[in-house]
């Protein structure tokens, strides 16, 4: 499965999401459970098929295709 091969660093992911989308994640974090806060804070390497990263995609309202595109675009960012 090609999705299982898709990875990026947390910094690449955040920069690709952009300030507005990452601020949505951070706004949710302020009201999240401790476990959800740990998911947001601790994901250092982002793996496309990770449930933690799927959770972040859910928070920003991304479809599977948008998440795929985000991972593809993240490879152009040197972080």
Q: Identify the overall geometry.
A: globular
Strand order of the largest sheet: 1-2
Nearest-angstrom radius of gyration? 12 Å
Along the chain, the helix and strand elements come as EHHHEHH
Structural class: mainly alpha
Tally of helical runs: 5
Strand content: 5-15%
What is the percent of helical residues? 55-70%
Q: Could you name the ranges where pLDDT drops below 50 across 5 or more consecutive residues?
A: none
Mean pLDDT: 93
Largest pleated sheet: 2 strands, antiparallel
Rounded to the nearest angstrom, the distance between the terminal CA atoms is 26 Å
Number of strands: 2
Task: Summarize the structure in words.
It contains five helices and two strands. The chain has a two-stranded antiparallel sheet. Helices cover 62% and strands 8% of the residues. The relative contact order is 0.24. The chain has helices at residues 10-17, 19-29, 34-42, 51-60, 64-74, and strands spanning 7-9, 45-47. Helix 1 packs across helix 5 (64-74). With 79 residues, it is mostly helical.
Record keyword descriptors for this entry.
two-stranded antiparallel sheet, 62% helix, 79 residues, single chain, mainly alpha, 5 helices
């Amino acid at each position: 499965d090609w999705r299982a091969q898709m990875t990026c660093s947390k910094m690449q992911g955040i920069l690709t999401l952009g300030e507005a989308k990452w601020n949505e994640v951070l706004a949710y974090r302020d009201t999240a459970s401790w476990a959800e806060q740990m998911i947001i804070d601790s994901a250092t390497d982002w793996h496309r098929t990770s449930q933690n990263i799927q959770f972040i995609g859910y928070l920003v309202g991304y479809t599977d295709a948008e998440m795929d595109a985000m991972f593809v675009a993240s490879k152009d960012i040197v972080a």
